[in-house]
Structures are given as C-alpha cells and as structure tokens.
C-alpha cells in the first residue's frame, strides 16, 4: 500500500490527519479554503510541499462544489482573495506563497480573456492546482535519483548510511518525498546500509512520521533522539559508514541559506565537525530568489504547549488503548517557553542542494549560484545543464 497524505479527485479532498499518526490512520475531509487553512495551521497536514498543495486544492473543491458567478473577473477576484487568506496559515515555507503567486497569474490571465465566463476561470484554476499534485511526485523522484547518485559517487561504492531530520517523505509531499526520497532511492539501488532518523522535538515528526514511513516501506532504520546526533557521528559514524546528513527545506534563500525544521542548524554544525557531507533536498518551488539571505526569512513560532505537553494513546500493559488518547504535561507548570518551529542553516555549512534537475554545488568562490537552476525552472532543461552534475 502506497502512503497517501493527500487524496484528491474533482469535488473531493481528504488529508491524512498527521496528528493521529502513527497510532491511527484517519482521513479528514477538507471542504473549502477555511478547512484547508485550519488543517495547515493545526498541522494535521504539514511539510512545505504538502501545505502548498492542500491549500491550492482546498480552494479547488470549494469552487467545484459551490455556485460561482458568471462573471470571469468577479470569480478571479474571489480566488485571489482566498489565496491571500490561505498564505496566512503558516509563514516560513515558501512553497505556499510560490503556489499562490503562480495560481494568481493563471487566474488573472483566464479572467481577463473576453471569451471566458466564471466557470472557465474555475476550470483554469482547478486544472493548475491538480497539476501541482502530479508534478510534485515526479519532482521528488528526480530529487531522489540525483541525491542518491551524488552520495554514492562521493562514497566511492559500497553501502552507506544517512541521517535525516523531521519528516520529508510521502506525508510531507504529494508522494515519495525529498530527503526521504533520497533515502528511498538509495534503498532501491541496494546502496543503503541504514537510515537514521531523529525524533525531531518538540512535534516529533521524526519518531511519529518518518519512523512510520521507514517501517511501512521496510527500509532498515534506527531512531535516535535529537541530542544523540553528535554521538552517533562520532561513535557509530566510522562503523556504520555514515556518508551524509540529508534534510529537507522550507525556504532556500538566494545565497543558499536554508530554513528547515528546528534542529537542522545544529546537525549542520556537527556534520562539519565530523567531516560528514550535509545536503539539503528540495524542489525548486522551495528556492526563493526574492529572499536574499537567511536573515530575511520569517521564522514561525508555535504555541508553547506543543513543547510542554505530549499527546498520545495510553499504554495499558502491552497494548495501546486507542480509546484513551491523552494529553500529558511533561514540563514544570509556569515555565516560560520559546518554541521556534524552524531555524536557518547558513550556506557555508551546506555541501549541496539537491533539486529535481540535479545537485547544485558551490562554485570556486565558495558560494551557491541558484539562479541557473531557477532560470531553468520555466524552461525544459536537461539535467546535465545544471551545475554540480
Ligand atoms: C519535504 S518537507 C520539507 C520541510 O517542510 C520539512 O523538513 C519541515 O521542516 C516540516 O516542518 P513542519 O513544521 O512539520 O511543516
């Protein structure tokens, strides 16, 4: 069975409720953009690409299931207003803003055509939103292929182990995943010795979601807490042949600085210290040339209770009793909490940015030039034309 975080067909959208994983596999219906906004804000759906796609499709089903004006410009204005609203759900991942910008452009063109009525604008919007779901899977397969090839080449043959952080798999995307896609490809090529995944406190995307995907796909994997990463590289690195740390991204700035799940930065520092490659895997929809550096990225802060409480089913003896889902306090009452959801890893700590058209490496000046990969974004360019391959 293939893991499906987003189930869409015209007039119907369902998301796998990630707050209930790994204990329960339950789908929530998303009827409109308001449902979509809340599903994203509450993190029932999460991960940069998935957020963008769910937002776009939530508005698609709203338009498909409700009567719209005959007037093309009125429908266009309605869609633009809803897209602006959806973008306010979570600020750090650029994929959502990027999707909204592209969809607005399509809608503006469609609504200005004198041949079009309201329904034609809706159709142009829904077709483009549905295409995002399809393109994301093929982009991820490209990321997996190029990332695995790059690691295998660097390692010079034989099996390798990799460490990853947060969840970047089928649950965070339309399917296959980015950093987890690289792990899937290494495994498919027979080159993966062991995948290590961090717990990823405080929301536990690693222990709840990545571990779930790895077990689901029978990929050899070991879970560690975030605080074990340096010890893993030092003590097990040589015996396990840990070749790289591979993470996803929520926004890659023009200079390569990368915002990703909190804890990524410290992993990059420890990778540098231990001489382990540090790679960011992201589709080009995550690269934001408008943001010059990491300093310009807005970092979302989440409620303190995500850190001070933990939610899950009660263990009665050996059996998990799913009827008793509880929220348990795990911190001293009254303590102040700082809970940034993401951090920024400076480009100097990153060895390569794996995209769907190839791995971008630094030039002789020690800097990333991402413009080439992004220029190719609107053209159909063969992978070999991108730097680093
Ligand atoms: C392919 S997902 C890439 C990133 O979005 C991922 O690494 C991450 O940081 C997710 O954060 P989350 O807060 O769970 O949405």
From TrEMBL:
Gene3D superfamilies assigned: translation initiation factor eif-2b, domain 1, Translation initiation factor eif-2b, domain 2
Keyword Cytoplasm tagged: yes
GO BP of this protein: L-methionine salvage from methylthioadenosine
Top-level taxonomic group: Eukaryota
EC number(s) from the headed UniProt entry: 5.3.1.23
Site feature Transition state stabilizer, where: 166
Localization per record: Cytoplasm; Nucleus
InterPro entries: IF-2B-related (IPR000649), IF-M1Pi (IPR005251), IF_2B-like_C (IPR042529), Initiation_fac_2B_a/b/d (IPR011559), M1Pi_N (IPR027363), NagB/RpiA_transferase-like (IPR037171)
Catalytic residues identified in the record: 250 (proton donor)
Function (record text): Catalyzes the interconversion of methylthioribose-1-phosphate (MTR-1-P) into methylthioribulose-1-phosphate (MTRu-1-P).
Protein name, per record: Methylthioribose-1-phosphate isomerase
Gene: MRI1
